[in-house]
Input
Amino acid sequence: MQLSVIILNYNVRYFLEQCVLSVQKALENIDGEIIVIDNNSFDDSCAMMQQRFPNIKLIQNKENTGFPKGNNSAVREAKGNFLCILNPDTVVAEDTFEKILNSQLITHNPQLGIIGCKLIDGTGNFLPESKRGIPTPWVAFTKIFGLYNWFPNSSLFNKYYAQHLNENQSGKVDILVGAFMVMKRELYNQLEGFDENCFMYADDIDLSYRALLLQKHNYYFHETTVIHYKGESTVKDATYMKHFREFMNFFYQKHFKQSLFFNLMARFGAFYFSVVKVFKGKVKTKVKPNHYILVSDNEALKEKLEGNLQKSVERMSLEKGKVVISQTISEVQNVQVILDMNYTGFKNAIGFLEENKNNSLTFKLLPIESNFIIGSNSSNDRGEVINL
Output
């Protein structure tokens, strides 16, 4: 078998359903399998999997064992020569795995380590954690205080997000994100998988770094794009800084030594962001769209949405196989575009999000043969599900 896709789920039933549907499409021309591990979710994730995907292997843990242990248990049952560690709140394109498995990174690279890809959020914006550098105390300091934004071209300040490459350049990087990682199963076993002493947060950094210690080369591959609806707010606050400090300390104690410099700066950063949050005031409430566009060939779906949303919905068709929104519409404020995956396909939808990320639009996807729409109107939250 060529590829095993490992998806660890915890209480994201609708995101999981959409993810599995996209992976199924992406495996149609590949000898592959999907393994879903559920970490004792209290929603109906497992019931959904059993009903909708009875032929997909489902591992049901009786407790939340954490990210590393959950993935490691699934890999022990995987049969593929290659593995993809994939978050459940992701959407892959139909050709994502084919592009990676057929790339020269794999066919001409005996020292291949881990491959990551271009990740975007639900608003179409690039996620910089798609590619990162080794987070030494100094590099972590530049991340905490945003120095990488001020000096993006300086090698002294731009290493946390590996800014020697832009988002549309493939190349070697040190660290990749656990939301999407492809590697040989042989390498994963050689690394003994994720470190189970780390419950979450630092596991992908640790695995990437240990691959480098084996003289392997990790790569960022920009030629395929995957949506990642981030599960936690990216707003920096005291809680964020607490987690950041904890996972960095785990990494330092394991591979280097405890850094008093980093601890001091992280504590100051936690205080700084707490003060900033107070002055920012309350988070703005979400505003419902005042205009909806459905990209679909299904008139009955349009009527169903209008009844559910209590708003008129304009239906549009693909133009030469692509989603095209006129400039006039994109300039109107508070427009939401609903993309019917039965009609557009996942790759088309992902491309549309990328192309229209700054056009004052928000997006929802209707997964294949599903009765809900899902998406995110902000890069700072996981997103929203609307049952139809």
Observations:
- The first strand starts at residue 3 and ends at 9.
- The two ends are 38 Å apart (CA to CA).
- Residues 260-280 form the longest helix (21 residues).
